[in-house]
Design goal:
It is an enzyme of class 1 (oxidoreductase). This is 2-hydroxy-3-oxopropionate reductase. Its EC number is 1.1.1.60. It is a single chain. The chain has helices at residues 16-25, 37-45, 54-58, 71-78, 84-87, 102-113, 127-133, 144-155, 169-197, 202-210, 217-228, 237-254, 259-276, 284-291; strands at 7-10, 30-33, 49-50, 63-66, 93-96, 118-121, 124-125, 136-140, 158-163. By secondary structure, the chain is α/β, with parallel strands linked by helices. The strands form 2 sheets. The protein has a 6-stranded parallel beta sheet with strand order 3-2-1-4-5-6, with helices on both faces. Strands 7-8-9 form a 3-stranded mixed beta sheet. Strand 2 (30-33), helix 2 and strand 3 form a beta-alpha-beta unit. Helix 9 packs across helix 12, helix 9 packs across helix 13 (259-276) and helix 10 (202-210) runs antiparallel to helix 11. The protein is globular.
């Protein structure tokens, strides 16, 4: 018998499926629930257990992990007669790894505490590749003791795992992360169009740029997307649009000016409005190409 805590995993999308599978590989017993039957079948094939409801998944779990798209989905799975708080046992630890507003995380922690359920907000960065390779950056908010308890589990999912402060702090740091990533992708996209229109060997140029001060994880991860115009979603524009709304709203609340971020947020919104919301966020290249008169 394993001494590891039993896990309930809610949300088996692009990120949640490989992350839950990494816990199974690490020896954890994982029971999962999501709305898509094929994702449940994938979990079962990997050695997990498919549940028919949230209640069934969380009832006996020591730790509940949630990975869903946004605040409304977190609230939908957490609250109500069919939600996590109604069915999880007192003393369970709820780790929400979704990217949501800091206030949603604060409210969840407060409401869960009334049920005897502890909460960490622990959003991630690294995209689908980072999830598959278990090298995610995980930024947590909550109590030190809960973080310490969760750390071995989080170690099976990521490489950089940091408690950033009280409840909501993880989401605040994730918002800053999404700001940096969006601005970085936009800068890379503009450089790609500039280089191509100048007749430079794009592959060679990106290699040398990535070896200097202009290098970044974004460029490393997205270079082939730019070169091949491959915008299969690893992290969708729709989700980055949501995240840019979170960071601009949070910045307004604390009085922080985001002049470049505000422009990039509008460019992300524009790309989404043009029907590209389902593409990877590296598709910001398409927006720059349109602005530059290139047919896409």
């Amino acid at each position: 018998m394993s001494n590891l805590p039993t896990i309930a995993w809610i949300g088996l999308g692009i990120m949640g499926s490989p992350m839950s599978e990494n816990l199974i590989k690490a020896g954890y017993s994982v029971t999962g629930f999501t709305l898509e039957r094929d994702k449940l079948d994938r979990l079962a094939a990997a050695g997990g257990t498919a549940a028919d409801s949230i209640a069934e998944a969380v009832r006996d779990a020591d730790v509940i992990v949630t990975m869903v798209p946004a605040s409304p989905q977190v609230e939908a799975i957490a609250y109500g007669e069919n939600g996590i708080l109604a069915h999880a046992r007192s003393g369970a630890l709820l780790i929400d790894m979704s990217s949501i507003t800091p206030q949603t995380s604060v409210d969840l922690a407060k409401n869960a505490a009334e049920k005897g359920i502890r909460v960490l907000d622990a959003p991630v960065s690294g995209g689908e590749a980072g999830a598959i390779e278990a090298v995610l950056s995980i930024m947590a908010g909550g109590e030190q003791a809960d973080f310490d308890e969760a750390k071995p589990l989080l170690d099976a999912l990521g490489k950089t795992i940091v408690l950033c402060g009280p409840h909501g702090s993880g989401q605040t740091v994730k918002a800053a992360n999404q700001l940096i990533v969006a601005v970085n992708i936009q800068a890379c996209a503009e450089a790609v169009v500039f280089l191509e229109k100048s007749g430079v060997d794009l592959a060679a140029a990106l290699d040398v740029l990535n070896g200097g001060l202009a290098g970044s994880t974004v460029l490393t991860r997205k270079k082939d997307n730019f070169l091949n115009r491959d915008f299969k979603p690893g992290f969708r524009i729709d989700l980055h649009h949501k995240d840019m709304g979170i960071v601009t709203d949070a910045a307004r609340n604390v009085g922080a000016a985001l002049p470049v971020g505000a422009v990039v947020a509008q460019l992300v919104a524009s790309l989404r409005a043009q029907g590209d919301g389902g593409l990877d966020h590296s598709a910001l290249l398409r927006s720059v190409e349109r602005l530059s008169g290139t047919e896409v």
